[in-house]
Amino acid sequence: MPDAGKGSNDRQDAVLGLDTSSADRIARTTCYMCACRCGIKVHLKDGRIRYIEGNRDHPVNKGVLCAKGSAGIMTHYSPARLRKPLRRVGPRGSGEYQEIEWDEAMAIATDWLGAIRHSDPRKLAFFTGRDQSQALTGWWASQFGTPNHAAHGGFCSVNMAAAGLYTIGGSFWEFGEPDWEHTRYFLMFGVAEDHDSNPIKIGLGKLKSRGGAKFVSVNPVRTGYSAIADEWIGIRPGTDGLFVLALIQELLRAGKIDEEYLCRYTNAPWLVIQDEGAADHGLFARDAAGQPLVFDSVTQVVTGAHQVDARPQLAGKVSLADGRWAVPAFHLVARRCLEPQYSADAVAAETGIDADVIRRIAAELAHAAFEQTVVIDQPWTDWAGRRHDRMIGRPVAMHAMRGISAHTNGFHTCRAIHVLQMLLGAVDSPGSFRYKPPFPRPTPPAIKPTGSAAQVQAGKPMPGPPLGFPTSPQDLLVEADGTPRRLDKAYSWEAPLASHGLMHQVIRNAWAGDPHKIDTLFLFMANMSWNSSMNTTGTIEMLTDKDPATGDYRIPHIIYSDAYASEMVAYADLVLPDTTYLERWDCISLLDRPICDADGVADSIRQPVVAPDRDVRPFQEVLIDLGTRLGLPGLVKEDGSPRYPGGFPDYLVHHERKPGVGMLAGWRGAAGDRQGVGAVNEGQLDAYVANGCFWRHEIPAEARYFKHVNRAYLDWSVGMGLIDKAEPIALQLYSEVLQKFRLAAEGHGEVQPPEQHRERVRTYFDPLPLWYMPFEEAAIARDAFPLHAITQRPMAMYHSWGSQNAWLRQIHGENRLHIHRATAARLGIADDDWVAVTSHHGRIKVQAKLMDGVNPNTVWTWNAIGKRSGAWNLEPKAGESQRGFLLNHVISELLPVRGDGYRYGNSDPVTGQAAWYDLRVRVEKIAAGESVSEPQFATLPVPPHLPERPGVLRYGAGFRAAVHGDAEATGETK
Ligand code: SF4
Is residue 693 in contact with ligand 1, taking CB distance under 6 Å? Predict the structure, then answer.
């Protein structure tokens, strides 16, 4: 029996008489083999999963299913699934565990956490990996009272997210998408092929099949999306900012910028005070009401930026009423971008891109933007009430991801890309980058991080979320002496705009007690003793290190929740086994990372389609239960009874973040007839299930472009509860927020950086676009480590989840170090030779593979294929552990030591983003005879009662037997 409710394609299948007899139930839910959140239909027979197909009614994938998605069956039935809570009985790292009952496990966790909540809640560090429940986990941390919470974002792409949110009120991936239907020129920077996987593949398919559009991929490695690009720019890692600034310079020199767009929708004309040494130097000149000022070129007077009739001037000195000078923001931006070091000729050597190529691409961008204008016959009204007959757009779309982000100069590179977009008038105009709701939001969103001394109190919740968006030094979470308050040093002078936290610093800082000691490290789905940590070998030592004075572990308690026997399990004192994604309720919420598209607002759920056959519980259920046992105010009633006795599904339906706004936006209101905002609907989950586990609501046609200034969109967005006020969102060509931090570093204001951080803050909090050499490259001898080393994520794998999957392992069962053929020839290296890869931090032994499609100064490998022997219940001599490897061993979590002896984290100085891709190495051939990658570690024992993994894993032999009378079912995974 198919599940309740059918999509239109299900009905079509029935009309066509397509055979669905292979299943006795088809359940629709949401894939979680990567973070794209495609809709899937799970075919079930006799309670077992028969196969998985894409849901053609689903807005994300429209039926498309990738290799990972269809192989979800083997992840679900993986022999690596944990079976029961575990308590460590041997030394940490030994993998010696005893199975315990859930009551005992929850009592241990409640005991540890209850004690610290009533003494110092900061002693809980609660960090989660690639999960999608931050709307719950962040709220839970606030309820507990600890600011020490974050998730995967600081690892991955916070530079991109923060640069976007502080600049255009949105960003790439979940926050925006190319206008696939109309763009004529698509420029993609540093996007791994598993990112936004099915949506990008579908989009590229549209772009290529309609013809007439050019796709240019800027990436040191030509795999995945780059392999099908019309032009591949094999840039040198960490120099994308130079390339973008050179493009901007070419456009400025040619006068190919959209002045009207800049004047109407950005802060380009806002006057910036020029009074070197004054406390307001570099801030916007404002009137008494706080409104920024512009100079009207017609009336020749200074007037408010919101005067719709003004024709603001974009350059030149202006005298202010107080006698001081100011210039428009554009004047400063243009002056910076026209500096000689950003000319095409000057950047060619550093980027590895010919100056002529840079000039040609700039000309192509200009041609697409200004000669191939897209016009949509749709009237619209802007924020000021001006009626526009049509929507006119610049069909140049851009997209960027982790290849740009994961550098110490990534924030400014991302900002430079947004500046380029603005100069072309290519933000949310037809044919360009388009916001997905709930974006755009104010620049930045009006949420401040919580965790000051006054906000953290024993036994009490914090008054706000741990993560937010500082707009001035007053918003930082620092002690009176300027030292960090958070364990990961987010929102300190070392990483002031750390919107996603710094997970890569957590274990090191907890071990060092820097800036403070903790009691319990609580991790969910984060493989921190392996592929999710820099300096993996050192991290393992930190996790097992004891204080010689007490004999106790330096990190006293570690609680870990995971569905699988990952490398991290061996280092936990208490293991709380999670379910697979097909066994639980989940929520992809507008409060977190929704599944919207540029034409509609949407969210989704997962429903349990099979019952667990092990004694495991969904992590979200465990969190609700744990919070209830701890008596967290949001989870218990006045009388102490559970507020959500039905667990996570109960919370999904009944929890309200503010009146009428809950975890799910669809089918709200008592009758289920409200969208976005509305009372609790008891039948809400049923409505989602009946609709294929998603909800989507179309944006009105007149509201679909220019969302940041579109009256209809802003009103609609307020009505849906997405933003608080229907006010225009001015795009920030010039960043006054950054200038406020710089002024503090120059000695202004009450909150100033300690002396040791002043120069760093002054340098990198530049309100203008900027490029500087990545920190590791600048600190080491470049000749000693002449190559860049980076990772790519393959299409068929997602972090470490994929390489335990029997089907996906057949695609990537081990990894090699890919080297450009010419570079390899120079080094005397041939295919499959063993080589040593040495950085300033360490050395690994790996096998080489030669190729042409890579920047000659760059080596690379697939991410997270390498496994530790014995982990994930793979056989100890599996290719993943014997020939697979991680680059993580040679990446340091700290930058090389400075002159004063201090070591900053290996992070962007603005956001704290982990700088995975700054790695520099040398590669040398090793004598023949090597056959195992290094380093190797002791084989991890398999946790109790996991099944013995057969040499060959088969699935479905039983189905064949049922159909064909074939009795063979050997090795079938159970
Ligand atoms: S792209 Fe990701 S979410 Fe979509 S089917 Fe593939 S693995 Fe699943």
Answer: no
Of the pLDDT bands very low, low, confident and very high (cuts 50, 70, 90), residue 971 is very low
Angle at 33 between CA 952 and CA 942, to 5 degrees: 45
Say if residues 36 and 67 touch (Cβ distance below 8 Å). Answer: no
Q: Is the CB of 38 under 6 A from ligand 1?
A: yes
Of the CA atoms within 13 Å of residue 210, those in its CB half-sphere come to: 14
Q: Is the four-CA dihedral 98, 104, 107, 111 of positive or negative sign?
A: negative
Query: Which residues have C-beta within 8 Å of that of residue 749, sequence separation ≥ 6?
Result: 279, 472, 473, 474, 740, 743
540: left (phi over 0), alpha (psi -120 to 50) or beta: alpha
* pLDDT digits 0-9 by tens, 917-927: 999 999 999 98
Distance 36 CA to ligand 1 centre (A): 6
CA of 42 to the centre of ligand 1 (A): 13
Contact status, residue 281 vs residue 275, Cβ threshold 8 Å = yes
pLDDT for 897 equals 87
Pairing status of strand 520-524 against strand 124-128: parallel
Return the number of other C-beta atoms located less than 10 Å from residue 279's C-beta: 12
Q: Is the CB of 401 inside a 6 Å radius of any atom of ligand 1?
A: no
Pairwise CA distance, residues 445 & 129, whole Å: 23
pTM of the model: 0.96
Each residue's pLDDT tens digit, 250-299: 999 999 999 999 999 999 999 999 999 999 999 999 999 999 999 999 99
Q: Is the CB of 539 under 6 A from ligand 1?
A: no
Instruction: Tell me, rounded to whole angstroms, the distance of Cα 586 from its chain centroid.
Output: 19
Maximum Cα–Cα distance across the chain: 94
Tokens at 295, concatenated: 């100079």
Q: Does ligand 1 lie within 6 Å of residue 36's CB atom?
A: yes
Ligand 1 atom with least separation from CA of 68: 7
Residue 68 CA to ligand 1 centre (angstroms)? 6
Q: For residue 849, give the nearest of 792, 900, 776, 906 by alpha carbon.
A: 792
| Ligand 1 touching residue 616 (CB < 6 A) | no
683-712: per-residue pLDDT in tens? 999 999 999 999 999 999 999 999 999 999
Query: Measured between alpha carbons, how far apart are the two ends of the chain, in Å?
Result: 23
Ligand 1 atom nearest the C-alpha of 197 is 1
C-alpha 377 to ligand 1 mean position (Å): 35
Ligand 1 atom closest to 67 (CA): 6
Residue 245 Cβ < 6 Å to ligand 1: no
590 ligand 1 Cβ < 6 A: no
